[in-house]
Here is the input.
Amino acid sequence: MASESVIHAYRHLYRQGLRAVQFSKPARYTLRDRLRLAFRKGCARDLEPQRVANTLEFLLYATKENGIEHKIVKNLLLVWWSQKNGGRGKPKARIPTREEIEIKTTAYDTFNHNIRMLNESMDMCLPAMTVRDPN
Here is the structure.
């Protein structure tokens, strides 16, 4: 895929994603960060024009109605925000054990697998990247 079409795909997905989350503050920054990560570290086969078009259509339906598409986008962004912040609890002052670090790094593997299966079944390109930083 040419770099110009990648730039256009990023811009279209970001713009429609902002409309889907109605420019709300924590969601728009989480969406921006996750799209940047997906476009920087993702592979080019995920950005086929048909996949991008299907994802844009999904985000359009999430924008128009408060249906299942909107709820999926809202919950994706909530989990991504929680993952980025290291969970919802208070940060602990002590050094985490090896088991705790392993749990934090593998906790979202099933979630990302479900996103990949959703992408495969609906032929979309929602970012399903695993962030391996446990902190």
